[in-house]
Task: structure prediction
Amino acid sequence: MRVHEILSTQPLPVTSYSRKKAESVITGLEKPINDHLLKLLVVDNDQNREHLTEELLEWLDEVAEIRFKPDNKSGPASFYYRILFDEPFGGTGVVNIARRIRRFERQGYRMRDADLNDVLQRFRQFHQHFAEACNHGVEADEIATLLAQITP
Result:
């Protein structure tokens, strides 16, 4: 295979891991993914928006291309949703979002006056749709569409 062949628009083979390794990889990406999602929802800074979106799309694409050995199948939607949303935010979503927002403010970000219940709902909605898309085999351009649907 040559470089120009992998840069074409044809799908490439996906990364195949054991379930335990896949969970570890996604868990490692949970915090930066969720922090960037929250920043897109609550930070009042259009200049940084493109950078946040680009990084976020890279991480989400990395999650979406993970498949399980030995049959190279994607995980169930519940697998992705549990790791990315339910474990860090399930049951205590507003409180955990508020803690992260306070940290962003300490880091110097200026916040929009957003309703935290609305932020949590958009956040949950994204993760539900993303988890379902991962289960079905989502492509990078579809992830960008999902992201655009939740951001203000």
Observations:
- The first strand starts at residue 15 and ends at 17.
- Strands lie at 15-17, 66-68.
- The mean pLDDT is 88.
- The two ends are 42 Å apart (CA to CA).
